[in-house]
Backbone:
């Protein structure tokens, strides 16, 4: 039986910079502290050691990938280290350079392109993604699809995402039908509260998705994904925009993955009092003690309702502080 405190990543997600042209109201990017871009030598070493070991790679974090001038080189190196690794980036599709897009398509190193276009009409789009040109972005998407067809390729697969909010719900099905004729797939996604920093309606989520799960199994991504910020910090969840949970730096020490902090992290996530209903009591306790952890009912709802999708950072940030107390009481050190 495999050691439950030992993770074996099948997905590597790494951030290359924190440059984005967006001020999206549903995203934590406008409020987060920006980091310096990763050095090329650090990225190469990261890819050298980890890409051969995984099945999928997302060279993307809190950033707009088409503002990363090294994007095509990064994708090329990923495929050199592991031709079978499935590559994905997420974009707002506001940046459209036909030369770059042609290279992306012709080189065939990008397997999937996920487009965040969060508005079924101009009013909603401007509310959720202010500052972007509703008409021009649609033109960019259609131009990319026409370019891919003209060049004779089926990759990258293009998927459009729409966040389901009270504003987009009424016209979401029309949005899906319209864009399904243009791109390969259209998906509806849950709203994330980003560790309680975003306004969230629990009642709306309940009406839309149903009641939260009574019991929350541990998130499998803690064992199967490796998330690295552009400064080399290893985090347990890609939604940890401000590195609330620091598991060590893989640029300086690649052994931090499956190191002591990671093992404690995995072990704690399997505790009965965390997996079951008592988790809610635990969250309340964290909030009441004001341990600099922002928790919202919305995040708890997401955590309970979506055990097999993106894990919220709320419980990770909260339990890491809690772990510090628990282990400290046992006379052990984790820092």
Residues:
């Amino acid at each position: 039986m495999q050691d439950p405190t030992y993770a074996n990543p099948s997905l590597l997600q790494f951030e290359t910079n924190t440059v984005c042209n967006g001020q999206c109201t549903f995203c934590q990017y406008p409020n987060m502290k920006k980091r310096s871009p990763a050095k090329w030598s650090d990225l190469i070493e990261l890819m050298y050691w980890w890409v051969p070991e995984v099945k999928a790679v997302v060279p993307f974090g809190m950033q707009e990938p088409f503002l990363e001038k090294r994007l095509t080189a990064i994708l090329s190196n990923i495929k050199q280290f592991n031709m079978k690794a499935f590559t994905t980036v997420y974009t707002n599709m506001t940046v459209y350079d036909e030369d770059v897009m042609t290279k992306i398509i012709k080189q065939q190193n990008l397997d999937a392109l996920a487009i965040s276009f969060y508005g079924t009409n101009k009013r909603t789009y401007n509310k959720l993604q202010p500052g972007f040109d509703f008409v021009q972005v649609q033109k960019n998407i259609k131009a990319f699809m026409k370019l891919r067809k003209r060049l004779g390729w089926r990759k990258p697969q293009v998927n459009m995402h729409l966040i389901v909010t009270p504003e987009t719900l009424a016209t979401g099905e029309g949005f899906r039908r319209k864009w399904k004729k243009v791109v390969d797939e259209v998906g509806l996604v849950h709203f994330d509260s980003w560790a309680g920093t975003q306004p969230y309606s629990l009642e709306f989520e309940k009406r839309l998705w149903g009641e939260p799960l009574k019991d929350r199994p541990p998130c499998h991504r803690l064992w199967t994904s490796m998330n690295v910020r552009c400064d080399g910090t290893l985090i347990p969840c890609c939604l940890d925009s401000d590195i609330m949970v620091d598991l060590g730096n893989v640029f300086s020490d690649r052994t931090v993955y499956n190191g002591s902090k990671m093992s404690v992290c995995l072990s704690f996530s399997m505790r009965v009092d965390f997996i079951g209903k008592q988790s809610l009591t635990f969250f309340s306790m964290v909030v009441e003690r004001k341990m600099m952890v922002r928790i919202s009912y919305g995040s708890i709802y997401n955590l309970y309702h979506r055990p097999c999708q993106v894990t919220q950072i709320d419980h990770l940030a909260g339990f890491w502080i809690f772990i510090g107390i628990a282990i400290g009481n046992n006379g052990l050190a984790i820092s």
Q: What stands out?
A: Confidence is low (pLDDT under 50) at residues 272-335. The chain has 14 helices and eight strands. The two ends are 29 Å apart (CA to CA).
